[in-house]
Design a protein that fits this description.
- It is a single chain.
- The chain is of the alpha+beta class and about 375 residues long.
- About 25% of the residues lie in helices and about 25% in strands.
- The strands form six sheets. A five-stranded antiparallel sheet has the order 1-2-3-7-4, with helices on one face. It has a five-stranded antiparallel sheet with strand order 9-8-10-16-11.
- A hairpin with a 5-residue loop joins strand 5 and strand 6.
- The longest helix has 24 residues.
Length: about 375
């Protein structure tokens, strides 16, 4: 199986399966002298960790990350990167492979079961194996390091829509995101979302979501035309997340309904003598190059494919049958996609920052 790596100068390679003994990743290309600890990484891991509310899978994984290589104590006694590959590992401790024994020869609709078998002739049916979103825990770990590569970078994400229920953007408050189980920036939306998802969960069904990622402190100049655009790579990174079916930058699909006058991000000179944009429909990226404005991206996550409602399918022998997926599953995988989206945007920006520095000497 190829294509387990992402990035160019700041590059990650993940490994492991959902029900294997462990999952891990290697971060290659991280500059030396960057201070970080396991505790800092764990902060982000805890945001993605399963079993924290009734709205996520009840698989109990502590997701405790261990650093195996690539760090050393400097003269001040601080743990810093050495420039060597950084190896990170998380042990799996709460697998229930027996939950999947009944479906080992049956393809779950909406899952990668059929396509993995078609491509490789073999598949790990235990939780999806390599196709499981369990792999994304290591992206979150690597994203914690990526944030430290770009000085002043802040990457935050929030859920802006659950099913057909969208937030009121006038109520946006970043402080609310970590105070509710949905990562909602709109406090008023939380109760309605809870009731809606309770109904979805109790019925054995699932729903989708839309996540918005905002990166502040992105310097102007990141990205390269024609085939190395910053928004191109952000879209690629976000689309690589399990269950993501759509990505947009800035105004995104909504830009099609705007006039040229409405869409243009006009520019003036600020009081400190620097360019100032009057709007940000471009999402902080012009011509594939960052403008210095916040980089804004959104991605749509489909409903969890594992549901209790029987669905028509076939088995590995070509027989028509029905299947209902048992076990522990998220009624909305979009909830835990919030920190994953943050991580992927951070990884892309860190990679482009190093590429920009290598080409121009800036940064």
């Amino acid at each position: 199986m190829s294509h387990n790596s992402f990035g160019h100068l700041f590059r990650i390679t993940t490994w492991g399966e959902s029900h294997g003994p462990a999952i891990g990743c290697v971060v290659d290309g991280c500059p030396p002298g960057i201070e970080f600890t396991e505790a800092e990484i764990q902060t982000y891991m805890n945001k993605r960790r399963p079993g924290q509310s009734r709205y996520t899978t009840q698989r109990k994984e502590p997701d405790t990350v261990k650093i195996l290589s690539g760090v050393f104590e400097d003269d001040a006694g601080k743990q810093v990167t050495t420039g060597a590959p950084i190896s990170l590992v998380v042990e799996n401790v709460d697998q229930r492979s027996k939950d999947y024994s009944e479906i080992k020869d049956t393809f779950r609709p909406g899952h990668a079961d059929f396509t993995y078998m078609e491509k490789y002739g073999i598949r790990d049916y235990r939780g999806g194996g390599r196709s499981s979103a369990r792999e994304t825990a290591m992206r979150v770990a690597a994203g914690a390091i990526a944030r430290k590569v770009v000085p002043g970078l802040s990457v935050r994400a929030a859920m802006v829509q659950l099913g057909h229920n969208a937030i009121n953007r006038d109520n946006w408050d970043w402080d609310q995101v970590d105070r509710n189980p949905f990562f909602s920036p709109d406090h008023d939306a939380v109760q309605g979302w809870a009731s809606y998802l309770d109904g979805i969960r109790k019925s054995g069904s699932s729903c989708g979501a839309i996540i918005e990622v905002v990166a502040d402190g992105v310097p102007a100049g990141l990205g390269a035309p024609v085939y190395g655009k910053l928004d191109q790579d952000i879209a690629s990174g976000l689309m690589s997340i399990n269950a993501v079916k759509g990505v947009e930058i800035g105004a995104g699909m909504g830009a099609a309904a705007l006039t040229g006058e409405e869409n243009a991000d006009e520019i003036r000179m600020s009081k400190d003598g620097k360019p100032e944009f009057l709007s940000n429909n471009a999402g902080g990226i012009l011509g594939g190059i960052s403008s210095g404005q916040p980089v804004v991206a959104r991605f749509a996550v489909k409903p969890t494919s594992s549901i209790l409602t029987p669905r028509k399918t076939i088995d590995a022998h070509g027989n028509e049958t029905e299947i209902s997926t048992k076990g522990r599953h998220d009624p909305c995988v979009g909830i835990r996609a919030v920190p994953i989206g943050e991580a992927m945007v951070a990884l892309v920006i860190a990679d482009h920052y190093l590429r920009h520095r290598a080409q121009t000497g800036k940064g």
